[in-house]
Prior knowledge:
The protein has 11 helices and 17 strands. A hairpin with a 2-residue loop joins β1 and β2. The protein is globular and about 60 Å long. Helix content is 28%, strand content 27%. The mean pLDDT is 94. By secondary structure, it is of the alpha/beta class. The chain folds into 2 domains: 2-139 and 301-335, Quinone Oxidoreductase, Chain A, domain 1 (Alpha-Beta Complex), CATH 3.90.180.10; 147-279, Rossmann fold (3-Layer(aba) Sandwich).
Amino acid sequence: MKTVVCxxxxxxxxxxxxxxxxxxxxxxxxxxxxGLCGTDMHIFRGTQPFLQYxxxxxxxxxxxxxxxxxxxxxxxxxxxxxxxxLSCGTCVACRQGKTNCCTNIQVxxxxxxxxxxxxxxxxxxxxxxxxxxxxxxxxxxxxxAIGAHAxxxxxxxxxxxxxxxxxxxxxxxxxxxxxxxxxxxxxLDAREDRLAFCRSALGIGQTVQVAADDKARLSELTGxxxxxVVFDATGNVKAMERGLEFVAHGGTYVLVSIxxxxxxxxxxxxxxxxxxLLGSRNATAEDFSEVLAAMQAGxxxxxxxxxxxxxxxxxxxxxxxxxxxxxxxxxxxxxV
Length: 336
């Protein structure tokens, strides 16, 4: 089967590999769509902290069942999506239902080879029917679930003032689900094209471009009180450190980004606000269900989000081009 391997930072290669074999309790999946994620870009750059090379990327997956265990509820030909966070089920996090931060987690495309290939075998408990949505939409469930999980972590309530810093795909997802929860959402980003997308596609009424006066503008928008919940989705250390300045007294700061660095805050600023500081990692089956229901209800503008596409063979040349901000990628999909 054809497979795309990232051998080292900046090195992609299309190779032939043997077809995988589905073991006991596993589904053999014919991969049909793979969404490109910021994680994949970090892998290509060499800035993903949990990864060893070589690696087959790809964790935003949809496809068709080739074979499945008799008691799985799946049958050949079913269209499915994948929850790519393979958890142990027994550690301290899993026992609390927090499989997204399992101590032994194996994320497809990061800790183990993912789905940038024609076929994939994986345990049946991570494979779910699409419920009538398209293969394209199903490949977008994962990044949207990360945003939905972050919003659930932040406990967004109707009427709260919410700031999302970073309008990439994860920030867009957090903005969307914060708005669906009734939050009054503002988005901060350096790129006007991303902010324009948030206004036109998501209906976000307030956007602010990073500039010398951006803090003053955010203050003005909130009557000097700033935001009840702030989400950082930038993947930028300086932005993550600065975001604390935008949290209201008694507010919550949710770090969705991950960077291979330390981050720090001025303790007086953190302490005087009695800030709740939260990390948000991956997503759970509950978050995927929430996103699927929102898609089925027509609440997610997936057609507008899917801005670029290519084939598995074309991905090797397309990825370096897509990483240029001038390409304007929101969500790129690889057809397999």
